[in-house]
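Good morning,

Attaching, inline, the backbone tokens for the sequence recovery test we're adding to the shared suite. The designed sequence is right after.
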């Protein structure tokens, strides 16, 4: 089911958003100052491509300086786009899973520094290794 949902997501939304953020990431990575923002956009683009089956863990400490700068300049714009898209998608019952993914991406796009994206397989392996 996850593969089908990821395929539908990629065709309808992920391909466009992912391509935009990959290009912006490449541009930012050309300068030394833009490297942290370029890495953050790259991580967002990877999550945007195939969000189903991925979990985002946010840092619990005080906000870092990069998150404060990002959250005041770039984060609100990306997050607002995904929140509006989530609102539109949640109108029908069929698209609610896609709206949930939009909210997950919006939260990650608002504060990507210090946050980690894990796949379900990675979480299962870490739980299995901790039980041994």
């Amino acid at each position: 089911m996850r593969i089908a949902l990821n395929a539908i997501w990629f065709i309808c939304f992920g391909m466009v958003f992912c391509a935009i953020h990959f290009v912006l990431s490449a541009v930012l990575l050309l300068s030394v100052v833009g490297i942290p923002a370029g890495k953050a956009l790259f991580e967002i683009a990877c999550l945007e491509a195939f969000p189903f089956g991925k979990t985002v863990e946010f840092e619990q400490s005080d906000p870092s300086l990069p998150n404060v700068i990002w959250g005041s300049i770039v984060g609100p714009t990306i997050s607002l786009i995904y929140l509006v898209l989530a609102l539109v998608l949640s109108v029908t019952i069929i698209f609610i899973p896609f709206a949930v993914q939009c909210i997950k991406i919006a939260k990650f796009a608002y504060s990507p520094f210090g946050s980690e994206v894990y796949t379900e397989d990675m979480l299962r392996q870490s739980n299995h290794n901790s039980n041994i």
